[in-house]
Amino acid sequence: MKKLLALASIATVGALTVSVQAVAQTAEIPRAYLSVMDMSGKVAKNTGNQIYSVSNSNLQLCWAASGIPLEPANLNKVTELFIAPSVKAKFVKPGATIKVENERSAITSMMGSADGKMIQTCWRFDQNDPLGKYTLRLNVNDIQFDDLVFELVK
Fold it and tell me: Residue span of the signal peptide, if any (predicted)?
């Protein structure tokens, strides 16, 4: 009886290993998304572009990343490197470490994931921020995403 239980256990572990490998092979590709969101209603609305008008106080620039291993608690290391059109750009994020070098601002913080599948945050800009094209280089848990580009306009 003990041998049968051991054989059944080995068979189960083998099947589980094959299942995990199959899931790993079909896992999501790491992706990052950037959208300008209109927060004026009860539900945020995607504007469908990456152009942010600083004269509209209802807008927020939001990014989301998925397809990567995430921790639900504030255990995900996130670095947002903003490359601005001018050295006048200033970024503030409570609890984050911010390093500024010329037009580059690197904001590093620990963030949580509500569902363990996606991590996201939003930023606000105003009329004191330099207008023009910005690049966001996003790194989550040592996974570097493709550059995300947006533009601030009046």
Answer: 1-24
Q: Tokens in use for 5?
A: 């239980």
Helix (H, G, I), strand (E, B) or coil at 98: strand
Query: For residues 32 and 133, what is the distance between their CA atoms, to the nearest angstrom?
Result: 18
pTM score of the predicted model: 0.79
**Alpha helix segments (H runs only) across 26-118:** none
CA-based torsion, 41, 44, 49, 55: positive or negative:
positive
By the 8 A CB rule, do 121 and 108 touch?
Answer: no
Domain boundaries, the chain: 29-153
Q: What number does CATH give the domain 29-153?
A: 2.60.40.1930
- In angstroms, the CA 153 to CA 56 distance is 10
Which position has the token pair 């490359």? 83
Q: Per residue of the chain (154 residues), give pLDDT as tens.
A: 333 333 333 333 333 333 333 344 446 799 999 999 999 999 999 999 999 999 999 999 999 999 999 988 889 999 999 999 998 889 999 999 999 999 999 999 999 998 999 999 999 999 999 999 999 999 999 999 999 999 999 9
